[in-house]
Amino acid sequence: MTFNLTVSPDFAPDHISGWYFFNTWLQRQLETGIHLELYDSFDAQRTDIRAEKFDLIYANPYDASMLVRELGFQAVARPASKSDETVIAVNVESDYQSVEDLKAGARIATTDDPDVHTMGMIMLESADLDKTNTEIKEQSSYIVVAKNLLNGGADAGFFLKEAYDEMSDLIRSKMRVLVSSQISVVHHSLLVGPRMAEYIPAIQQALLTMQDNDKGKSVLESMDVSNWEPMDSEQTEFMIDLIDTLID
Amino acid sequence: MSDQDTSETRSVEIAYFDGTVRTATIVNREVPYPDGKLIVSRTDPKGIITHANQAFIDMSGYSEDELIGVNHYILRHPDMPAVAFKGLWDTIGEGTKWHGYVKNLRKDGAYYWVKATVIPNIRNGELMGYTSVRRKPSRSKIEESEALYKTLLAEE
Ligand SMILES: Cc1cc2nc3c(=O)[nH]c(=O)nc-3n(C[C@H](O)[C@H](O)[C@H](O)COP(=O)(O)O)c2cc1C
């Protein structure tokens, strides 16, 4: 039987090959076929997830709720010391010094990443801003969000902090961070679906010892993950509860 | 912060629903909500704190040891009307999510405003407790809530 693996579309493009190496590595460890399918849109991926196409998902925390509570997935591991944080940035030359300086009618550049967008909107609440009194401009990538700030097409932009930090020094020097979230308990995780449940102990064992050998270590490096940490069901449920408090 | 901030202290006796009474020192000084953070706590089904994150500990002014195992009412500010918390318990008792603006009392007597959400933690169909997540409220919402709570408190 061949299983299907997919990865949340918000990983940095530099690490695409890393996920292919990971897939090859995992097939060897488990001695079973796994097909990797990547998406560049959250919506398209979610449609296929709902159609129960996947058995193994490196998921965005926002999708974890649907996967665990509706589709019976189980989280097995998370990348160590990597949490999902959101940055709101502006053009370095703008007058905005704090979120509260943004006013109704503000043009906000964002992406379809549901976590980053949700956190960004929450951080705008302190300025009495929401979707009814802002102009939301959904862009295809964080680079396009940055371009919007540089060319004056938007007043503020939402970024995954990791993506913001990985942008070139030149681009970053033209932007200024108004606020950066510090939540720490919201993060991606690797989830296993019902059809693959019998492999859970083997997957966890393989992941948790991955950094102990040269082959595993180099795969981790190519994915920009230092090592995996175990995740149990209560940790997963807690994260889902927390995210639930953030969405209406 | 409002212009009536005086930093004057007063002693207030607070009586909780369970019969506990304590005398708290209240200072009219607001501590601003930290940007970008979420204040998180969890309780058992009765409201006894079982988990507090670092932002919670920092803002409340208590140590983790002082918080775990005590009722969440340790943060109850005397300016908060009882009816607000009745609304909270009624809502979560029905198994649904509650949102509201809360003025919380710190250990040092100062206060901080939050926009709070409380949700029931259901595991295998059973209520295990509640999670509360707070975020930064806007100035206008704080002012609205201040006025509303004053009216409600006067009616109690
Ligand atoms: C998860 C959870 C979080 C709560 N957070 C607060 C809080 O931050 N501040 C507060 O005054 N009461 C909070 N409460 C409500 C208290 O348990 C209590 O009902 C309230 O302080 C009123 O106290 P009293 O019922 O003794 O008058 C919370 C309750 C729950 C279940």
UniProtKB/TrEMBL annotation, chain A:
Pfam families in alphabetical order: Phosphonate-bd
Gene3D superfamilies, A to Z: Periplasmic binding protein-like II
Superkingdom assignment: Bacteria
SUPFAM superfamilies from the UniProt entry: Periplasmic binding protein-like II
Protein name (database record): Phosphonate transport system substrate-binding protein
Protein source organism: Amphritea japonica ATCC BAA-1530
From TrEMBL, chain B:
Lineage: superkingdom: Bacteria
Domain PAS per the UniProt entry, residue ranges: 44-79
Listed Pfam families: PAS_3
Classification via PROSITE patterns: PAS
CDD domains with a match to the protein in the record: PAS
Keywords of the record: Receptor
Name of the molecule in the record: Aerotaxis receptor
Source species of the chain: Amphritea japonica ATCC BAA-1530
